[in-house]
Structure prediction request, 309 residues.
Amino acid sequence: MTNNFGDDEQRKLDPSAHERRTDSEKTIQRNPHPDFGKVQASRPVWPEYPEREFTKTKDPDWKPGQGGNDGGESLRKDHVEIDPYQEGRSAALNYKLLISAIIPRFVGFVSTRSKDGESTNLAPFSYTTVVNHDPPIFVVGYSGGYDNAKDSLKNLMDTKECVINVISEHFIEAANYTSINAPFGVSEWSVSGLHPAACSTVKASRVKEAIFSIEGKLIETKEFESRATPGKKTSVLAIIEGTRFWAREDAINSERSALDPAVLRPISRLGGISYGRTTGFFELTRPDFEAAQKAGDLDNLVKPKVEGQ
Prediction:
């Protein structure tokens, strides 16, 4: 396997590596506002929504075979085809497109500790999700390859341990501040003001402010190579098994099987520098084929699969 290096080792071999990662932010230009402070000041204050409000679905009277609930409006719109590898199309354009299209995304707030225990890292990663429950499996995507590993990835690979915390509304500013491009050795815990709490199965700390946290052990990693620039390593996928869950008492139900979203109030990642809140809810039951057939809902709709369907 290719050797992996963190910021300290990487700077000894290539002092410009950290600067290249910082410059990439300027290239991507996620922030579309020349003066974000001015834009922020012009916006209304943060609204406090009801604790939990359910509404009907958009079309409660929807029937099988009806299709969309927009009266066919979406069918009257045309699409454009985008080749991610088109000559002259930069990888940055694909990045900006995907983070604006695949939304909302859970933000994995990952805590790690170095192998010698002398250093820690705390950072948000929006390429994070759960992919299985038995065993509990999570994936986290890191930008850059093994030879330019961020501290979070280096710590994870060295110790095989981490904690994935869920970001809630009550500490969004602090969580965001951990992504600051501070010099090597500066503590994200300190600059954010967040508090570490002890774990049971890993040495890394969980975020005390987090309503839900997952202790995890690394199963394996997979490095990916650029299609546009062959030989350039662009990302690493980490597969992690959850070994312990931490849930705040006022958010979990009595059988410890569900969290109240009105208490969790999770934050999701959107495109650019935008984030989302989970403020409204609706419910949908899964249809049952036999029941729908017996009720006549599927009359003239049950047909064999054909090409294109």
Q: What stands out?
A: DSSP finds nine helices and twelve strands in the chain. Confidence is low (pLDDT under 50) at residues 1-23. The first helix runs from residue 7 to 13.
